Amino acid sequence: MIVLVFIVCINGFFNSNEMLKGFINIFVFVFILLLALFCLIYVKYKKR
Q1: Most buried among 13, 21, 23, 42, using CB within 10 Å?
Q2: What is the residue extent of each domain of the chain?
Q3: What percent helix, strand, coil does the chain show, rounded to 5?
């Protein structure tokens, strides 16, 4: 949740730079995807 607020602040600060804003959005998407994948692997490993 704190990370989300931090990202929103960055997006607001670099609002004039569209390319950087797009890069941040891609980075956030990849980070969420990796986090979800890690959670899935952890749950599968814990069930064994």
Answers
A1: 21
A2: 2-47
A3: 90, 0, 10
